[in-house]
Specification:
Elements: E1 7-11, H1 15-27, E2 31-35, H2 38-47, E3 52-56, H3 64-73, E4 80-84, H4 89-97, E5 102-105, H5 110-137, H6 148-160, E6 167-170, H7 177-186, E7 195-199, H8 205-213, H9 230-233, E8 238-242, H10 249-261, E9 263-264, E10 273-274, E11 278-283, H11 287-292, H12 298-304, E12 307-310, H13 321-335, E13 343-344, H14 346-354, H15 360-374, E14 379-380, H16 382-405, H17 409-427, H18 432-439, H19 443-452
Parallel strand pairs: 1-2, 1-3, 3-4, 4-5, 6-11, 6-12, 7-8, 8-11, 13-14
Antiparallel strand pairs: 9-10
Helix pairs in contact: 2-3, 13-15, 14-16, 15-16
Length: 457
Amino acid sequence: MSARKSTILITDDEKSIRNTLREILEFENYNVLEAENGENALGVLEKEGVDLLLLDIKMKGMDGIEVLENVKSRGWALPVILISGHGNIEIAVEATRKGAYDFLEKPPDLNRMLVSIRNALENRKLVDENRQMRSKLHGVQDIIGKSSQIQQIKSIIDKVAPSNSRVLITGENGTGKELVALWIHEKSQRYSGPFIDVNCAAIPSELLESELFGHEKGAFTGADQQRIGKFEQADGGTIFLDEIGDMSYDAQAKVLRALQEKIITRVGGNEGIPVDVRVLSATNKDLKEEIANKRFREDLFHRLNVIPINVPPLRERKEDIPLLIESYLDRLANEDIIFSGSSFDEEAMQEMTNHSWSGNIRELQNVVERLVLLSSEKTITRKDVEKFVSQKRETDAALDELIHRNATFQTFKEEAERLFLVKKLEENDWNISQTADAIDIQRSHIYNKMKKYDIEK
């Protein structure tokens, strides 16, 4: 398979120069796009995948330096080579300071220009490879799927990751919202900075402000030393506010202020601390409904929801389930030799695809591991799936029935206790001593329970 051609965007207001550069670059086997001014160049960059920008400085309207500043402020990770017919040391220094890869004088020396282009593209390739290696070292899994929904999510990630725009990721529990956030960070210009994950639902509301913004020594009882909060820890990187819909109303107001002013104040402190943080957030709740019920601030919602990404549940992308299963099998095999060589036959894979995955990806991962461990053969069959997966579904239904059948906690507890004891006695062939050892209670207690619940073999 031939390597993908790199795409170069030539931006110059002189058509003759664009034509000359196009001929040279196409002869060198590059894809070439053109723009006649700065505004058009930015429009092309928004729509096309461009690997390098060849940019004239002196143009009508937006000049090359302004285009360069726009490229860098939007976080587009492509090298920019500036060309000018009015070259001097001051312009070259300014261009380099603002992030240009190289500066060439008109008419450019052909060999120098081609060498600069090759070096710039090679440098970008190395940066991308380094980023991929870091992702693997950090254990960031791929986003797996061939469904249109997953392909769209990947496309959005590629477009928005280089920017500093805030992203709100929505979806049910277990769909992979954190993985989306991780990839946005890994593909951003902040990838070498920290990625700080905050589970807003797991932190008590009275402690959340201290967790996010830190506190000074003596700010409250138990604050025996200064603490640096998550926003400060994420400076220069990304903060991921997971389950943002569970954040208290008071804490929401303080987060809104931090987003607006890019300054935080530690609890018990007076000093404003500037922070350079990109904010990603996620929730499994309908925030518009939360707003209507006065549980979520509308102004914060609009601050967070600049780029919305919805992660679909497994039931809406069933064609991805076989790919996910194969991926989990490979991962398990790499982690432990016990799992190597395991596979699903065609009927088993179809049964897994048709299963209703209420727990989404997390549940699927657990089931794959369970099947590999409990199946008698390396090749997992439909019978295995029915036995170890569908049986669980029947157990869940039985539990629901048990709950609905009992009006009080006491009657539920007694019936559950009776069923548990009968099941354990059956597993131990009604041997009282073995059963007592298995469930860690005294034999006399079993006899008492059997009498209480009228249990007989």
